[in-house]
Every structure is written in C-alpha cells, then in structure tokens.
Amino acid sequence: MIEQSTVEAAVQECSQASDETIENVFNIIGAFDIPRYIYNSERKKFLPLSMTNFPVPNLFGTARDKAELFRERYSILQQRTHRHELFTPSAVVAHPDDSKSKFQLKTIETLLGNTAKVREVIVLGMITQLKEGKFFLEDPTGVVQLDLSKAQFHSGLYTESCFVLAEGWYEDEVFHVNAFGFPPTEPSATTRAFYGNVNFFGGPSSASVKASAKLKQLEDENEDAMFVFLSDVWLDQAEVLEKLHTMFSGYSSAPPTCFFFCGNFSSAPYGKNQIQSLKGSLKALADIICEYPSIHKSSRFVFVPGPEDPGPGSILPRPPLAENITQEFRQLVPFSVFTTNPCRIQYCTQEIIIFREDLVNKMCRNCVRFPASNMDIPNHFVKTILSQGHLTPLPLYVSPVYWAYDYALRVYPVPDMLIIADKYDPFTVTNTDCLCINPGSFPRSGFSFKVFYPSNKTVEDSKLQGL
C-alpha cells in the first residue's frame, strides 16, 4: 500500500520539476560556484566532494592541493583514454588479429622496473623540465628522463605541464620518444553515456540539462535568441564608446538576448586612478545603454574581467570586478551581471564556457617544439585545450592557479561552446562537437565581434569598421 503522504510528496516533486525548468533557461555560473567532482578509480565514478574525504576548497591551498591538482588532471585523462577504442582491451573471444591493433598503456613505474630494453611502449604522462634543458615524463607512479632527438609531434601545442601519450622505447633509464600525441578527446554525449545525467557543469538544476526535452524544445523554438561576444572593451576610449553606440543602435530594433563584454575594460592598465576612471567609464556605458530603451529592457549584460583589470593579481580563477566599482552601473542597468573569469553559461540545454586570457601567445611561447604549420595555430590551440580537458595546460609559474580551485578550469565533459577571448586574431573552430570561438580584441581587430545563434548553433563574424 502507498500512503497518502508518499503520493503527495511525489506529486509535489513532479510539479516542482516543471517549475524548475523555467528557472533553468539562462544561468550564469561563477567559477567559485561550480560543483566539484573527484574521480574514484575503484568505483570508476565521479563522486561529489561531500562523498569524499577531501576538504572544502580554500584560496590558501595546502601542499596536498597542489599535488592533487596534477593527480586529478591525470586521472581524468587516464580514464578517458582507457575508454577509447584504441586502448580498450579486446575480449578473449575476439579475432586474434583485432588485438594487434589495440594499444596498451604502461605506467612509468613498469618502465623503471625493467633492466632490459623495452620496445614499442606507450605511456601517458606529463612533460616536465626537472633539470635545465632536460625534459622528463611524470605520472603518479614515477618520473623518467626523455630523449626527444627523434620525436615526431602530432598536431597541437606541446607545452610543459601538458599531458601526452608518448610512444617509444626504454633503455638505460631513458625513454626514447618516437612520437608524441595528445590523449584522445571524447564528445560530451559519450562521457554522459558512462556517467549518466550528473550535472558536472553547475547551475540550479540537480541533473544535467542535456536530459531535459522541455528545455530542448524551448531552445529550438526561440529562434530569435542571440548572444553577442566582445573582448577588450576599452571603455576609456572615446572611439570604442562611439562604436558601441553604433552597435546598440543597430540592434535596438531586435535586442540580443545577452551581450558578453570581456575585459580589459581599460586601455592603460594599473595606475593610481584606474579604479576611479573605470567607475566613470562604466557610468558612460550605462548612459549609452539607457539611450536605447528596447536594449535596456530586453537584453542582459555579462561582464568578465580581463587580466589587467583591477583585482587580486593574475591568479585564476579570477573574482568579478569589485562591487564598489560596479555599483552605479548595476543600479542604472539592473539586468547586468559581473562574474568571474572563467565563467560558465547555461542556456536551455547548451553549456558554454567563457574565458578571457591571452592564452595563444603564452602557449606558443612555452612550446617544447613549435608546430611546423604556423598558419594553423587556432586548430592546434583548440585541439590542445580539448585534449587536455583544461583551460590552462601550462606550468603554474606561467599561468598561476588557486590550487584548490583548479577544477573550475576543467573543460570536461566537453561543452557545446568554448569562448576564449584572446588578443590573437579572431577565429571559429569546431572540434569534438564543440564550437570554439575567439572574438578577438574589439579595438585591435577593426572593431570585430562574434554573434552566436543558439537555436541552430551558428556563429556570425561581425565588424563595425567604416560605419
């Protein structure tokens, strides 16, 4: 027999779920609000922080946090690689020829335990430079010196602290690398097939929004939805404000769903008057927005701080602009949100990550070997980020991270869209069902920006030059 109270609870839960989907249409998730999941290799599952013995994240990380940061990056890539068809062990009954095409991952410990030469071996590990000019491969079981004299590099930007699949042979405590490749990427649909509808992304929904047919329907029906992305919005430059005027007047008849403004918000960084002048610049922007009532009423404004905006230095994730700077703007433009860098946007069933960092230059400067095809840097770059499952696969001295919040920079499962706002030339690249775009620097690229239509997942290149 089912009691009345049970039925009432079930009905209430069902009715709540339908209300909840209305809330879930558009959410901005700050880096410090992202849920933390830790991979458990015994259960082959991602467990929420509350089910583990890990402490709650703290900005002042411990030594354990720093070690855990690399261990977690490794375990995520290891479980993903093991699942890939090239590394899945064949069933015993399979045809004997099939097993030859499969590869087997070895740990560094198994190499170090050998006195004889080990031929044709593949190891997943992290490139490090423990001694000046000498590269090593490191994994949780040990470290081995590399000989890269004959190494071939597959496409991608291979930097220190990035994880690679190294193929080669081992002799006399040195691993001679024949080829370097990145761990294979995995579409988010494949990841979710293994881990169910766990909400890795964050936001109010208890389960992943991917499973919601109602939200999918809303997404398809709302063909007018439009996101506008700009980077390096230098509000202290009269020409930039003039171009924003032009842009708003163009969009006033059909206001976009949301404008995403990425920093830096000043052309000249730092200086004792920066905060005061930024307040004035934001006030000037608010006045321009108020001149267009349709945009003021209908559009949202999201601000992502840049590396040279006022804040606590260059450590990631970066908190929003301080409330005392943005207070006046928020009063004049109530539909505005000042968020963290990076941040996440969930629109209906789509997951979007926004990151403002001049990353392309940093990664090219720190390459172990620069790619031969110089023309194709955007493709190399996007492949690297998605293969590493992380926004900054760089040494911590190049791109510092709050150790305990490293998980906020993960790109796993792969989102639907990744916006990396960089001063590098604008680009749009699709890889592993993920649309990766760089709107480019607004003032430096002839006032170019990107427009995204979520209903059909298309990106439009736009420019205000000569208007």
Automatic annotation (TrEMBL):
Primary site of residence: nucleus
InterPro entries: DNA_pol_a/d/e_bsu (IPR007185), POLE2 (IPR016266)
Gene Ontology molecular-function annotations: DNA binding
Keyword entries, A-Z: DNA replication, DNA-binding, Nucleus
UniProt domain DNA polymerase alpha/delta/epsilon subunit B: residue ranges: 227-428
Subcellular location: Nucleus
Signal sequence extent: none
GO biological process: DNA-templated DNA replication; error-prone translesion synthesis
Presence of the UniProt keyword Zinc in the record: no
GO terms under cellular component: epsilon DNA polymerase complex
Family: Belongs to the DNA polymerase epsilon subunit B family.
PANTHER family reported for this sequence: DNA POLYMERASE EPSILON SUBUNIT 2, DNA POLYMERASE EPSILON SUBUNIT B
Function recorded in the entry: Accessory component of the DNA polymerase epsilon complex. Participates in DNA repair and in chromosomal DNA replication.
Protein name, entry field: DNA polymerase II subunit 2
Native source species: Athene cunicularia
Name of the encoding gene: POLE2
